[in-house]
Amino acid sequence: MQKNIQMLDLPSEYQALKPEIDSAIARCLQDQHWILGPEVKALEEACAHYLGTKNSLGVSSGTSALVISLRALAIAKKGKDFFDSEDKIITTPFTFTATGGAILQSGATPLFVDIDPTTFNLDPSLVEQALQTVPSVVGIVAVHLYGQSCEMDKLLTLSRKHNIFCVEDTAQAFGGAWQGKKLGTLGEAGAFSFFPSKNLGGFGDGGLIATGDAELAELARMLRQHGGKEKTNADYLGDNARLDTFQAAILLVKLKVVDEWNRKRQKIAERYTHAFREMPGLIPPQAQKNDSVFHQYTLRVMDGRRDALQAYLKEQGIHSVVYYPVPLHRMRLFQRMGTCFGKLECSEQMSTEVLSLPIEPLLSEEDTLRIVKEVQNFLN
Ligand SMILES: *Cc1c(COP(=O)(O)O)cnc(C)c1O
Fold first, then answer.
1. How far is residue 24's CA from residue 21's CA, in Å, rounded to a whole number?
2. pLDDT (tens digit, 9 = 90+) per residue, 330-352?
């Protein structure tokens, strides 16, 4: 009986870094600086340096990073604690729930615009059409899905032209870049998640906001901690959304290997794509070498055979996941509180075709080949 292959192998990742992580945790226990302790500050500085941005602040999750970034923009642009529901923010329906949820939490209404099937990300030409026809759009939330960059030059040109903001949902793309600049530093703000399964993952929830704008950074710092420069004197309706000291200590260790592990992901992706390129019935991800950090390796499975392939792999002990089976505009929440630009047919089609394979950075060559072989067995 062969062993099961999971999407990720977090126990092995821990074993690979155990001595350093254990001593980082032990130091926290010694010091007892739990709330915004020195590790949080050190991680913020290390991330700002790594990303090449002026300001970075740790928050309690990727969702908080998005909500706080958007609310800081509402304060900076409108002088209000929240956007109004008439304010629309363009985003993709082909993303995790939290992207749209954060827009709603900031007071605005999501305007879903369809994706380009080669990148799985917002189609800039449709964003342009939406901006020409829909009034009261205040910004764009660009999601770098599966670690693959959006076409940022086009989205930024549009946002400048229409005088709206662009926030990057970089939850799936830590370490990725667009034309030499790190993702999350191209728009007004970048929101990162340290959820355990992300490319830079902690041992629980965590997130980070990156911004080159000192005013936004200051506002975000206030919103992270009860809405004032001091906790005991609030200017805005804040939250308790601080990054935990333990998480920061662990992430400081993992930050040192994030590039190496992203390269391992790219290497696995290269092996997969090499094997799947010529297979009828499959479309491997179109990302060129290195323009994705492969948070997920996602195939399109044609001819309605996606679910059958997933079931077959499961029988062979190989886990795979559909990200995402329900586009946001099909969820009851967003049917009540979101708006759509056009029919969003591409997102709907992708939700029936996509299947993500294991892409654990420490996946062995042998296991990678076993996955390839089983996919081929199914298709033949
Ligand atoms: C994971 C994720 C989030 C939310 O991050 P959390 O840390 O889980 O709150 C937001 N957007 C996308 C695209 C994600 O993948």
1. 5
2. 999 999 999 999 999 999 999 99
